[in-house]
Amino acid sequence: MNYGSYIVHLQKSLLKRTLRGEHYVKLYSYRYLINGFAVVITPRQADKLSGRKEVANVMLDYSVRTATTHTPEFLGLPQGAWVQEGGPQFAGQGVVIGLIDTGIDPTHPSFADDLSTDSYPVPAHYSGICEVTNDFPSGSCNRKLVGAQHFAASAITRGVFNASQDLASPSDSDGHGTHTASIAAGNHGIPVVVAGHQFGNASGMAPRAHIAVYKALYKSFGGFAADVVAAIDQAAEDNVDIISLSITPNRRPPGLATFFNPIDMALLSAVKAGIFVVQAAGNTGPSPKSMSSYSPWIFTVGASAHDRVYSNYVVLGNNLTIQGVGLAPGTDGDPMYNLVAAPHALKNNTASCNEMSLGECQDSSHLDADLIRGKILVCSYSIRFVLGLSSVKQALDTANDVSAAGVIFYLDPFVLGFQLNPTPMHMPGLIIPSSDDSKVGQPRANAAAQLFLFFLPFLLSFLASC
User: Where in this chain does the record put each Inhibitor I9 domain (predicted)?
Assistant: First the structure.
């Protein structure tokens, strides 16, 4: 019997002696980094276990969530670390990065292993497996994606797991895991295509490194500590060199010492085993106590600035230029386009032009296509977009239904303090991010104002994922 099997035997024995004749369900045995287990029991049974001298700590399982991006050039890699490694074609060679996340899309070109004829063997020290399921078929792994497994016992026991949406496999139905994997070790020079348009090339930070995926988070609910610790324990047993977690707890762990939680204790043992551990600082802040990575043995990564410039803008007929946000194609050629605000293009039988949703272009049935065809449709961007009650995608569908040449969103003055990210659009379009600049917001009916749209892609040659 090896040491790991001996640990599992002791855990089973403890449960049987303490909960003799009682019902319980053991989900995981943690045997490599920490000596512990995840078990479904009642509060009374938890009290009985905590009273045993063999038990150091009992903690209630808790939920976790994803946390995320950007850029070799911004970090100075082409002139720094990549030069030391011999260029991007060697950066990360021989290193296996274990990613605890929402899985991966194995068909993405960032994870192909046939982009070079150079020798690219799977590191001999890595001993992980590639799980095979209906939606993660045999052949999904390769010399780049060297391992893939999923962990969902806690989620399934809680009854929150949706097999059709969350996928009981390493496959990524959310996109977050694919995104973070490509940031860490995506292949170098992968074309970025958004809405059918080229936006430069992408690269991971260590494009020659190998990826091992340990899926423990899911699209519909996030994840739970019990599953995450099982993923960490397996990654360490598989001999990964780095463990990367773009995940954080949904709340501060209980107690004065935040590191007395199973995730941080497992990561401490991983560091002691020689694994470099990286965790996202979280998506909140900057403000006091906004950090979500608590322990000094974890290399915590947060973003304080970036060099992204969104150079999209519109030029009005009077040569006034207004900056905007949006990943979209430009208008064809040099013609000018008339603009029409949604409230001024309603059908005669529409009840009220003052209703907020009508100005947001969410329903083409209320709009007169004859008034809009070939013009730029102007829509309001209200708090309803922030709350998820309205969407840019739906407005684009509306613009397409009424044959608009493009769409402009002007910011409602009540939408304050929210960062507007560039949204992929399949037609010319942008969001004017400041209500002070929304000079096209409410043009007069039958106004002769015209505008010329330029949608210049920001520099995506250094974007880390696509």
Answer: 9-66
